[in-house]
Amino acid sequence: MDVNQPILGGIALRGSGSAIPSQQLTNGQLGLRVDTSDEWIRSRTGIASRRVLGPGETLTSLSKNACSRALEMADWDPESIDLILMATSTPDDLFGSAPKVQSLIGAKNAVAFDLTAACSGFIFSLVTASQFLRNGSMKRALVIGADQLSSWVDWDDRRTCVLFGDGAGAIALEKTSKNEDGLIGFQLKSDGTRGDYLNLNQANNYIPLVTDNSYQEGRFSPIQMNGQEVYKFAVREVPGILQQLLRETSTDSDNIDWLLLHQANQRILDAVADRLKIPHSKVLSNLENYGNTSAATIPLMLDEAVRNGQIKSGNLIASSGFGAGLSWGAVLIKWQGPLGFNK
Length: 343
Ligand code: ACO
Description:
Shape: globular
Structural class: alpha+beta
Strand content: 25-35%
Helix content: 25-40%
Mean pLDDT: 95
Strand order of the largest sheet: 1-7-6-4-5
CATH superfamily of the largest domain: Thiolase/Chalcone synthase
Bound molecules: acetyl coenzyme *A
Largest sheet: 5 strands, mixed
CATH topology of the largest domain: Peroxisomal Thiolase, Chain A, domain 1
């Protein structure tokens, strides 16, 4: 991949929003279902509770709320949006959930589609949307990261069910001049040879149709994960891709204001920061409250940090997503949202 192609324009991050389900599930409550403990989960992952979508809430409604908040922060008319890109592996509709979100927010001029890249989905979507803005074919985009892994985890498998939760986040991206570009650099990678470490495969369930014909019923097996291999993958590849990005953009790690990683496990966050010699005080983390919400973790964390005043306009953020595929990606971005937005 040649990331050094001529760039015609730039992008600016103008707004963020997020939404979480109302149901909270603590480690203690999980202990009523599987043989685990608050102490085990906290010490191995840093997670204390997670949110789970229940009756009356859908991933589409969470995404709509996240988008509405991002639009409010950016102070945009929904009809001014050209593109809605929804990163999700768990859409309400397998044909795509983004068009439904488009209709709910009244963005009638936007083309809307889903993109699947598991926990890397938000970074992959941010970079994809940026191409339309940089080449001048579009002016405004909403990029959503949303997932409902609670529907796809085996709630009797203590090795996986303690890790995941549901949520949604969105950012508002705008075309700018090349000089103001807020996407300083990016890197995206995939390695399907290691895909078996983490997957959510279709169930191997063939049903007789007529005569000798059969069909595969549309059903998925629960998430399968080799936790130790995923851990090793993350602590090796994430520092590697970030170091490559810093080198290519001639950026000193001292100049990074925030390290915003996919919120998978606090031990992974700390190990990556140590490898990059970035102090833990610059590592954004909210996984204690939400666990791993897959494509949602990065925009959810970004939005919280913007609204609580940690991230300020002009801050430089190094961000990386990683997960199933295997897939991983990194961006170096500048936050250019409205000054003093804090609600
Ligand atoms: N409660 C209590 N005991 C448990 C639990 C639990 N929830 N889960 C596993 N154990 C037990 C195991 O059975 C095992 O017991 P044994 O020694 O008697 O067999 C023991 O704890 C150790 O198990 P390990 O799997 O070796 O535990 P490990 O230290 O590797 O921690 C963990 C597991 C937290 C999953 C870790 O491997 C990890 O964080 N991996 C990365 C996972 C990840 O981030 N996945 C998401 C990627 S992003 C995406 O794309 C979705």
